Amino acid sequence: MSKIFLFSILWWLLGNPFLALLVILFIVYVLDRRFVGISPSLVRPLRRLSRIRSLRRLIAGSPSDMSSRYELARLLMERKRYREALGWLEQIGHAYEDSAEYWDDLGTCQLYTGQQAEGERRILQALDMNARVKYGEPYLRLASEYIGKDQERALQYLEQFRSIQSSSCRAYYMLGMLDRSLGHTEAARSVFDEGVSLYRSLPKYKKRSERGWAFRSWLRRIFST
Fold first, then answer.
1. CA 63 to CA 56: how far, in whole Å?
2. What share of the chain is helix, strand, coil (3-state, %, to 5)?
3. Please, is 110 exposed, middle or buried when counting C-beta atoms within 10 Å of its C-beta (0-12, 13-18, 19+)?
4. What is the pTM of this model?
5. How many CB atoms lie within 10 A of CB 96?
6. Residue 107, C-beta contacts closer than 8 angstroms, at least 6 positions apart
7. Tell me: the pLDDT tens digits for 149-198?
8. Pair 198, 169: CB distance under 8 Å
């Protein structure tokens, strides 16, 4: 009712229902970004593009700058331009051969450019070097690749992740989706419930990063059949 009242007031003030609707959507977006964090940032992609352009200029003027090449590769990965990122990563392997994060990034790019076996091998190499690299995130990445293809392997990677990271709503969501794909509807609902319950118990600083996955679990729980 309050939304209808707000819309009516804005329509009256602006004299245009479409402008009124846009203002309401903007207010909802700002409130979400401030207090909820589900909607994507509109500013971050622009900053990323600007930084990518700056890095390209830096690299052109200093071909031996390995750190700038690595940063550029990571920003390209954020944009899901994995093939281009892979090209940059392959150029700097000699400088980062002792970095677990590097091998995980390289493996991720290979994984998403049709080199699944090699990508998985590199990611596992990173995990052998440091089982907690990126807080266990590589295990989730591997699990997501096998959900719907090899359920046993997907479950294995999920369990490995949960053994080192017990406060991840994303892991519960993926585990629920795995149960759902196997036709275990009640088990999936139970796991989704666990993910939502976990979110409620998290400290405030952790909730923002986990909120989106908790919300997905809640939706899946509500609409499970």
1. 10
2. 80, 0, 20
3. buried
4. 0.77
5. 18
6. 118, 119, 120, 121, 122, 123, 124, 125, 126, 138
7. 888 898 899 888 888 877 888 888 888 888 887 788 888 888 899 888 98
8. yes
